[in-house]
Amino acid sequence: MLSRNIAGRVPARVRPLQLSRRPAIHSLRPFTHCTRLQISPPSGRPQLQFLSPQPLSRPIPPLSIHLRKHFGRLVSTTSREHYKKRFSYTVKTTLTLTAIFFLFSIVKLGVYQEDIEHKWPSPPEWSWKSRWCLRSAQALQHPEYTNRLLTDWPMVAGYLKELIERLENVEREGAGIFEQGDGGILVEGVGLTGLDISAKSEPWRRGYFQALLGAAKAAENLEGWLTDKKQRVSAPAEHVIGPSNPRPKPMPAAANYVIHEEDCEVASPPPEKFYMKILTTNGFDTNQKVEAALAYADWLDYKGLGITAGDMYIWALDIAAGGIEGGADNLVDLKTGVLKNTSPEPPSENLMRVSTALAVHNARQGDLPTALSLFTSVLKAWRSLPLVQDHQTLTPPTQGFNPPRPDFQSLLNSNDPPTRTTGSICHEAGLMTYIGEILYASSSREHGLAWTRDSVELAESTLASLHNSPDLTSRGRCAQCLKVGLENWRTMVSALVESAREEQVESLVSAKKAWYGGANQAKDKAEQLRRWEAERDILQHRIEEVFPLLDGEGGT
């Protein structure tokens, strides 16, 4: 009994559970009436809200909150790796294309700079920054070469301002130059005069001259312009908002900026600052100073300062005469500029340039007799030169900055007489056009028209002989001369037609009152009218045929 009782007393924690053999009773409930407890997993599993139906009374959350709650569910481990690969591929592709585009831009810029360096060379002794400024400014002044409609003069002025500052800095490009006198010469309204650059090389001096002359041209075109220092844009003063201009004109449609007067400064110094610096610099040759003096005088003529312009033309004449060894008293009248044409030696190229410019100035001022004397003296000087065939002339390297060879020294010296070639005959045609205008306006219409006809024939024959010539400059100049001559010819003939028509009407009225000869006089006037009308019609037909060809030759 004892052992039996002990064996039968198994602890409850060890005793196996006896499963009930009674069948489980499950209550079936409709699927459409599922509650949270029926759908949700046991209490040990996490409760996911998106698996539980929301009560209809609860408001819909905003889209941002909705996306924030479900973003983790939408981005799984597989999609995360996919997005990483896509993002890495996109970054690599973008960086590769950017690098290719950047390198292509550098190559394109290098090719462009090499091209303009070939066309407008810069001194090789300058630094790359100075050479960049000079050739870029030169290229911008020729919009037809850079495929632009107009010249960006503010950019030209900016390049040349930086270049001049570098060239005049004795610690950089200007090592070896110094001021003239004790601290320089100060001119009222202009500032300090030119420096002494005689110790620099010829390429250096030529580049400095081009920089000053380009800055003067930019200053002429930027007169009355202001530059916004903050936005670095320029515009005429009439478009700038400020106290001095309370009602400014609207900016162009393409301009998306507004300029205020308090943020502005003058876009460029006055042109005379640069012209006077060239004229007073020690180291420029006669030709460079004559070119600057003529450009400054032409600017003064444009501004209506005729007397000051006349003085500047006389100054240019003195500079040209001073470059001739032994003096120029036997070549030109230093008071009037008329070439004497009595010396066995012809005048220099500079003297002929100055006399021609002085003749144009006198014609503008209304002094036609003096202008006619100057034009005829220059024409005689040209015709006194021997004609040299184009294949006999040597072409000097006018654009290169290497020192010229000794064979070309005489050709580069503008103090010597010019060479009369086929291309230079267009100069004579231009002078004949001027003479025809003056004669037509002052003394004789018939003589003026005859000179104009001769100038047109000379220009046309010269252009025909230059048709296959590589000298594009001479061809363009000749085409321009021919076009101007034809225009003058048409204007003169049209005026003669109107005058003849008026005279015919007057002769018809007089014929009714005249006792004798009135009918014959009316007949002569009618015949003269038909003659001028016929010449006008023939000339118009000629112009319609020639003008398209002139555009192809560079005429404008």
Give me the secondary-structure topology.
Layout: H1 2-8, H2 36-39, H3 63-74, H4 77-119, H5 128-140, H6 153-167, E1 178-179, E2 186-187, E3 191-192, E4 195-196, H7 202-221, E5 225-228, E6 233-236, E7 264-266, H8 271-280, H9 286-302, H10 306-322, H11 349-364, H12 368-383, H13 409-412, H14 425-442, H15 445-465, H16 472-513, H17 518-552
Question: Can you describe this structure in just a few lines?
Answer:
The model is unreliable at 1-7 and 394-412 (pLDDT under 50).
Number of strands: 7
Weakly predicted, low-confidence segments: 1-7, 394-412
What is the CATH first-level class name of the domain at 286-393 and 415-552? Mainly Alpha
Number of helices: 17
Shape: extended
CATH topology name of the domain at 286-393 and 415-552, in short, is: Serine Threonine Protein Phosphatase 5, Tetratricopeptide repeat
